[in-house]
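In this supplementary section we document a worked example of the pipeline. Step one takes a protein sequence of length 261 as its only input; no multiple sequence alignment statistics are reported here. Step two produces a three-dimensional model, which step three serialises into structure tokens for compact storage. The input and output of this example are shown verbatim.
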Amino acid sequence: MSHQLRRRDRLTAQSLRELATGDVDLIWHREYYPPEQCDSALPRVVRAAEEATFLLTKEFTSVGTSMGEVANGGESVHRYLDTAEATTRLIRHDVFGGQQSPTDLIRLNLDELWPHGATVARYEARMMLPGVLRRMTPGGRGRPHIDRRQIPLLDTYRLQRRLGVNIYLEVPAPGDGGEIDFWGRLSDEEFVALKTDPFDYGIEPERVGPPYDTVLPGKGDLVMFEAGRMHGVREVRKGCRTSAACFVGVRSASDPLLVFA
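The serialised model returned by step three reads:
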């Protein structure tokens, strides 16, 4: 039996609905964000990443306190909420000033494609961060993990699915790493049971066996997938891997989608 993921090659109202209901596993829309706009913004993205103070892992840098840092609650939640508006302004006006940012583009498209629209998620009436920028330099990687639905900031929404969204601004050459590996879906409880450290975001690849499927995105590509499916990024051996990222929370078909990062 093949474990290859069921794919769609364009983000449309139909493919979004299929991904939200689990009828497909992956949307891989090539050159969703114009490559020339990737090139234009990249120097400013690199500068912002070099100045960032990401706390979750040394395996990559992130512009913005991400949802991964607050998954276990605690004081990091206050930092996440306190910095969300400033990070959004930084990405929109300083990094992508003069052009639409990838995370603004995807949010507008989701709002237009989903029958009940899309909105930025909130916690106790405060805006969550709608997007981050991530950068992996040589040696960087993302160990296999899932992005959990059941965390303090998201509990009140009772999400049915959490979708991962990545738009690639810079990618290593083929053969130089940075591929996305996918395994099967896990519940939050199953994933936590696999971890040796409850505060570590991921696990070592040798513990999960060969991936079911692998994607090597190109510059400007959009990749959307069920974030409850275990996924990871292979080590970048040469070049850099830079992306704009967010999550999409799915509730019922009659609720707006939720955007957060």
